[in-house]
Amino acid sequence: MNQCNEPVLAMYNPKQPIRISTDASRSGLGAVLEQQTDGHWLSVAYHSRAVTDAESCYAVIELETLAIATACERFHQYIYGQRVEINTDHKPLVAIFSKPLNDCPPRIERLRLRLQRYDLHLTYVPEADVQVHVEGIMVTTLVSDRKKTEIKHEMEQDTSMQKLIKVIQAGWPDERQACSYELQAYWNYSDELCIHEGLIYKGKRITIPLKLRKEILSQIHAGHMGHEKCKRMARQVVFWPGMNHEIDTLVNQCEACQKHQHQQSVEPLKPHLVPNRPWQKVATDLFELNNQHYIVIVDAYSNYPEVQELTSQSSKSVINAIKTVFARLGILEEVLGDNGPCYSSAEFASFAKQWDFNHITSSPGFPQSNGLAERTVQTVKNIISKSIESKEDYQMGLLVQRSCQSKTGCEPHWKDKGEVLKRVMPRSYNVKTENGTVLRRNRRDLLKIQEKAKDSTEKEKAQAMDLASRKKHQVNTKILDKKPEIKAI
Predict the structure, then answer these.
(1) Of 172, 191, 245, 318, which has the most beta carbons under 10 Å away?
(2) Nearest by Cα to 286 from 275, 276, 297, 270
(3) What is the CATH number assigned to the segment(s) 281-403?
(4) Contact at 8 Å (CB) between 115 and 69?
């Protein structure tokens, strides 16, 4: 009779009495949860697992206690808050569980501490009565008898499976390299593999020989389920090393799945144009750190950041901060900000009209369109946070940031003003030419560096667009002709 179907496997009823029968051996633990219905005890759930190397060294009474603890934790959703009868074939456990905790051996004491949240009542049952239920768990799987016979036949013909059986019976070597090449893939599962009736089990899952794996995979993917559902189905029944990777490959190469797969389209990037000069266009953003409000104004040409403290995040405070930049550097052509209240207010719109600059807002729900300001905020917040923690002036950190070379190959301040900031680290103001002549930096050098920086910026944006467009297909491309690239695990 199949122990996973009615009438053997019953539905759980919280109003009916509960009992758990457990048993343990040097190779595994087993348990069955039962409920009394119409005077008969029917099985509700099963549990079993292999013991680890450390657990196999336990005393018999410790293994039996471990079986009870493992079963109760496994059936927690059924027994928590209920009176539970525990059937065990190890009579000394009944006396041990009636003793005070401090009178128990240390390992049993720890296991009993794990069981204190349950209302357990131990009963001694002869070994034969427990074996009828518990030992049947290890041999019950979702594979039919006919398929088991076929797997066993192929396993006898498979030389690698025969080697694996011998290693399991004789014992695994101490090091992975000592195993033959075809058995090294099983090394990580050596503690979980066992042999029963000529079949190799990993827990309750049957290890499949190489010749049958393709057939098993096709059966798993018969309903054209996705990656995770196919894996969950396979993990209930079968096992072999690399099974998850092979399932991923099968699903990715299934033409029907690829044809009807839902695709999330990637919108093409539309990068901002690179300005021709400093402070032609700026990006702004607000942030708060340690109850203090800040505004970041970063030049889109040189990446030079201006950081100012604000009294609040109101439009008036933001306008006053931007006005100080205008007063020092002149009125800008474009100011990019997000759609926050301070930028979308009528007061800010009036300010833009009065000072004659173009106010641009980032796309709603897409802050990446103001990525320059977002990234600068992240950098500035790190500088301020670290300076506060180390009790230093964060303005010194901003000075160092402005004088560090960026991806464009030059400093933000040099690219902005053609000057080298005086800083703590010594810096030479001289430039050595190819013929060895030493000259001071001049206007011609500035123009060359600015041209080089602009080329670097455009190249960087082109690379970003290339990465973003790799997921897009050309017009008239046959999607099914493009096999997905599967990376090896």
Answers:
(1) 318
(2) 297
(3) 3.30.420.10
(4) yes
Q: How many angstroms separate the Cα of 310 from the Cα of each of 150, 317, 318, 399?
A: 77, 6, 7, 20
pLDDT of residue 440: 52
Note the pLDDT of residue 18.
Answer: 92
State how far Cα 135 lies from the chain centre: 38
In CATH terms, the fold of domain 18-136 is: Nucleotidyltransferase; domain 5 (3.30.420)
Residue position matching structure tokens 């059924």: 78
Q: What is the pTM of this model?
A: 0.38
Q: Report the pLDDT averaged over residues 360-387.
A: 81
Is the pLDDT reported for residue 140 higher than 50? no
CA-wise closest residue to 387 among 372, 402, 399 = 399
Name the β-bridge partners of 121: 85
Domain ranges for the chain: 18-136, 141-259, 281-403
- Cα of 117 vs its chain's centroid, Å: 33
CATH topology of domain 141-259: Endonuclease III; domain 1 (1.10.340)
Q: Do the domains 141-259 and 18-136 match in fold?
A: no
pLDDT of residue 276: 79
Check: CB of residue 112 under 8 Å from CB of residue 149: no
What type of residue sits at position 196?
A: H
Of 473 and 394, which is predicted with more confidence?
Answer: 394
Residue 358 β-bridge partners: 334
State the pLDDT confidence band at 229, using cuts at 50, 70 and 90: confident
How do beta strands 238-239 and 199-202 pair?
unpaired
